[in-house]
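User: My advisor, Dr. K., asked me to get a structural model of this assembly before our group meeting. I'm new to this, so sorry if the format is off. These are the inputs:
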Amino acid sequence: MFEPEVNPENIKKAAFVVAIPSYNEADSIAFPVQQADQGIQLFFSNMESVIINCDNNSNDDTKEVFLGIRTRTPKIYISTEPGIRGKGNNFRNLFKKVVDLHAKAVVVVDADLKSITPKWIRHLGEPLFQDFGYVVPLYVRHKYDGTITNSIAYPLIRSLYGRRVRQPIGGDFGFCGKLARTYFHSDTWSDGVANFGIDVWMTTLAMNENIPICQAFMGRPKIHRPKDPGSDLGPMFRQVVGTIFDMMIKFYPFWSQVKWSKPTAIFGFGLGETEMPPPVAVNDEILFRKFQGGFSTYGHIWETVLSKETVGKLREIREMDQERFDFPTHVWINVLIDFAVAYKDRLWSGDELLDSLVPLYLGKTLSYVKKTERMSIGQSEELIEEECIQFEASKGVLIQRWNEKPTE
Amino acid sequence: MTKLLVVDDEEHIRMLYSEELSEAGYEVITAADGYKLMERIDEERPDLVILDIKMAEYNGLDLLQEIRSKFYNLPVILCTAYDTFKEDIKSVAADFYVIKSFDLTELKKKIAMALEANIPSS
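Assistant: The format is fine. Below is the predicted structure of the whole assembly, which you can bring to the meeting.
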């Protein structure tokens, strides 16, 4: 029988919440729950705390495993209705529960984390009891890990809203109770936000609410269940990028006033050694083939969305062989600007438009892989930094294009 | 007039920066090390700090953390002869990172950007 909530200790109030969203994580959820429990006992033992599993009504015993783990911290299980999936829907349940519990601070960690330590709970939670309302993780990631973050989310969010948050879609967060109420009552909810768009939505709303943001240094890299390389990139890409574009429409009055960017406060340096991330393999051949394939599948969309100059540049790039492949940053910036404007003007349906951006993103990814193949992680970070400055310098072009009347 | 604080243990660098940045229209004050730097910032209220990373008795990256905890919005540009410090993740707390050079074009550009940066209240 479906139970939307199981609260064995009948907890009605908690100052500190650690939440773990899940769908079919029976084989992995025990470890982050145990680490969260230890983190709470070590660093937050002076306050009423609870661990919440917000689940999508998993059919693999996630609920039973979660509730069966022995912890000193009380636990609550909450679930979406049967058939309702999506990480964002889990968060929506969480926001309501957090408001009901009158929580002051909430830390969220993924259910499949293998590298989490009790310190992660401290680093994501402690700033919320100081001056900060939103905490994002700062991990050292392999240069080929998080390419949507590197090519789109980080540079766009940074240049739009002026805050340098290196992992705006990191998956693990801390937020204050006040922000949970803002999230719960926000009128910007969408299908994308209900799924993978939730992370970037939370970060963007925090920035637009002028919530003090802090990056928490995690020491260890994020290691979680490896993603199936054959899995479809489309839904996640659509939800993340679509949410960024939706937020651009909503928050134009704010971001159009932002100039350049400022660094964000960092919590947790000096609290441990930095551990290097494991290598990530990339298949250049597939990236190249998918970029080339985009011309026949989506060329008709690109010609209506992109400027003639950009279409011309793409044709030049198409002529390059795989070994010398290069997708210049300024062309990529112009692509993103034109796609954001086309999304606003509804030149195509959102899904069609975003799907047509995928091959171009894969081309940009291949170019990044080529440029950084002999670079250290630090050197590739420097390259991303330089690209971000180009994004910020193009803000005037974006604003001009944004305000042009759409052509019939 | 916009006031810049240059913190560097090399005298010729302090002189070079003072001269060139004054000519560029800034008021420049200097410090030879990190001794009582927070008190100095509190008293002088500079609009921006140019901070050497590797000084004889002080680590610029540690000083940066201290500045960030006390003067959260004060722009800081890290300036060093050594490219390798960019690899240290602590350097992300700076507004910019510039390699020392006798040609101050890059530094002047980054000073202008850091001073122009604006995030309005929502």
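One thing worth pointing out at the meeting: The CA atoms of residues 245 and 259 of chain A lie 19 Å apart.

User: Perfect, thanks a lot.
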